[in-house]
């Protein structure tokens, strides 16, 4: 049997994407396992989820500490899942090609912090979600997978946000599985 892809997940907040990845691993939808969850925020709800799901976690506020831990554990892939701190050029270089992120828009449209609000306020017909490799420029690395989400006439920002999150929870595990297929 092939070894499973070893994942580290970096979070700062709610952790719903982290949970979707952990569940996809447990249900064998993807040939991967989550070896560590790292939060830079001690109050992140993601930590409560990780504890419930029996996944090891650490709170590390400092980027140098995060880098040290990752270098010690040597994950095959680092997944940013609502990690709200911009990483330094040095950090991105160290883990180049091994770090991916999820963003709630069809990049290159609506990069940055308020992607869902911006798409909603722009009265765009559609928006979506993107999983991409992390490069020094924020929300701009090579795209791995995207899924479109239509914006309906009767959508509120809340209903749109809900459908975006549903799409995220499908696409993040699918993007990881795509990497696994490519690398073997
Ligand atoms: C998601 O919308 C993701 O695209 C963005 O931050 C949010 C994190 O949500 N990068 P959660 O913490 O996974 O629930």
Provide the gyration radius in Å. 16 Å
Which quaternary structure do these chains form?
single chain
Distance between the termini: 12 Å
Report the mean per-residue pLDDT as an integer: 96
Summarize the structure.
The chain has 184 residues and is an alpha/beta fold. The protein has helices at residues 16-26, 45-52, 63-73, 89-94, 115-121, 157-183, and strands at 5-11, 32-39, 57-59, 77-80, 99-103, 126-133, 143-150.
Describe the structure.
With 184 residues, this protein is α/β, with parallel strands linked by helices. It is 38% helix and 23% strand. It is built from 6 helices and 7 strands; from the N terminus they run E-H-E-H-E-H-E-H-E-H-E-E-H. Strand 4 (77-80), helix 4 and strand 5 form a beta-alpha-beta unit. Helix 1 (16-26) crosses helix 6. Bound molecules: 5-O-phosphono-beta-D-ribofuranosylamine. Residues 13-18, 81-82, 102-104, 168 line the site of 5-O-phosphono-beta-D-ribofuranosylamine. 5-O-phosphono-beta-D-ribofuranosylamine binds at residues 13-18, 81-82, 102-104, 168.
